Amino acid sequence: MKRRDFLRTSAAAAGISLITNYPPFAFAQSADAHITILVDEPLGTISPNVYGHFTENLSGVIYDGIWVGENSAVPNINGIRKELVDEMRKIQPPIVRFPGGCFADSYDWRDGIGPVDKRPRRTNFWAGGESANAPNAHRYDPNRFGTNEFAEFCRLIGAQPYLAADLRSLPAEEFYRWIEYCNSPAGSTTLADERAAAGFKEPFNVRYWGVGNEAWGCGGNFMPDEYASEFRRFTTWAPGYGLELAYIGSGPDGPHWDWTRGFFEAMVRKGREQLRAVYGWALHHYAWNLSRGKTQDWEKGKGDAVNFDPVDWYELLREGDRMESLINGHWQIMGEFDPDHQVKLVVDEWGPWYRPGSELTPGDQLEQLPTLRDAVFSGMTLDTFNRNPEKVAVGCCAQLINCLNSLYLAHENNFCVTPVGHVFAMYAGHQGGQSLRTEFSAPSIHYDRDGKPASFWGLRGSASMHGKQVVLTAVNPGVKDPLQAQIGARGARISSAKATVLTAADIHAHNTFQDRNTVAPKSAQVQVKGDGATFEFPPASVVRLDLQLA
Ligand code: AHR
User: Fold this and answer.
1) Tens of pLDDT along 497-543?
2) Residues 195-244: pLDDT tens digits?
3) Nearest Cα residue to atom 7 of ligand 1
4) Cα dihedral value 93, 94, 100, 104, nearest 10
5) Measured in whole angstroms, how far is the alpha carbon of residue 148 from the centre of its chain?
6) Fewer CB within 10 Å: N-end or C-end of the chain?
7) Pocket test for ligand 1, best of 61, 62, 124, 214 (most atoms within 8 A of CB)
8) Alpha helices for 302-450 (secondary structure H)
9) Contact 391, 324 (CB under 8 A)
10) In angstroms, what CA-CA distances link 57 with 53, 100, 237?
């Protein structure tokens, strides 16, 4: 739709009387920052799926995090941690990816179905990294949580399942059979009968299928053209059962442009129509290198999750902020082969990755304690997805619970929502909204990076519209200064507004099992005057403004 047409139709539908050629919003000069929401410049619909999650069978994610078992003293629904289900329902989770990650390419889905007492124990892909006192279930997968339990978890929280298939160690036939198990109609196939025998007569209707994971590395060490042939082999014939299956190719890690180019080139060499089988191209980006340029070593470059100085704070945000250029860079390469951009980006692993040591449950591999810094990081990343609605179709934060950028931490009877979890609750209102171009103008932050001057932007965010309601989210990444911002909507008047703020006096603030609410969102007043609004964005904060347009 052309900008003008959208302007007329959406404004008419929303009952907003737009004045075309509306003059630029007139700001007073006194504010530190200005935000202009361009109501007449839609960027596309924000796919709810960019607010997705990732649950790998890795250490405490599944066993202890999600699955506690039906006979556990921990309150549960059919074996699934009840408090997790209750919290997740509040954030409207659209999609959850399972069972990996690297784990996926070592997983035989058949091990996780059928009578529970007959399910085999297998060595977990991650066993080598488990500590000596790790629970057995973390090293030797009991397969108690398999496809049925995952589908049940998704049903309970109201999310769509996204399954990652094993491309490295299983034949394509097993991929088809897994689809058959999940999607063939009741009574139609032997596998549908097996599903029914487990209590799941109706198909799970799984639409999203990952074709391997990190195929350039743990998923098989392929060259891009080799992976392209595997991708074609796996997806050439698969029964749809009335669903349009969405195959997701194993894309690059960060700026590995050659992987994207190599795959797309190999696909179109066979014929441009080959790309029709590709719904999405996965992109992974972890912010891990806090060495301030001193090393690229994966172990040495990582920083601490909780003990950091303001420079580490900015360095982490700077690493995370590469997301936008990664999206644009891969998108541009994809466009060389797919000019209509039928293939979308699926950012199915993102988040900060710190060195071990901060875990609330000692010994949980890859668990880390999210702080306010990670909340700002997550808000920044979700805003980036919101600003690129036509490029990013799915996003999965790595990972949901007890791992990396967790929304939740849990151990036995203990549970807490992390600052990251609160950000997902605050941002849920963007799902399905019309993303609007929004201009942020604020002074940059300058800091000393080991004797060299460095800077980071001062205020950024995104806005989306449902009818006459605009959700504006933004982060103030500065650790010291509040920003008094004037907010205007070009093409409309702001008639009322309210704010939700996530911040803390200490930039290291975090929640624990004992102190669950150290970092929690609070409501705040917004001053509405004339056609616009004024709000003070506290330092180190994530803010949501709910604006009513007239
Ligand atoms: O999220 C942890 C791991 O990071 C995943 O298993 C893998 O895909 C990535 O390298």
Assistant:
1) 999 999 999 999 999 999 999 999 999 999 999 999 999 999 999 99
2) 999 999 999 999 999 999 999 999 999 999 999 999 999 999 888 899 99
3) 101
4) 140
5) 23
6) N
7) 214
8) 310-320, 322-337, 372-387, 419-427
9) no
10) 13, 6, 28
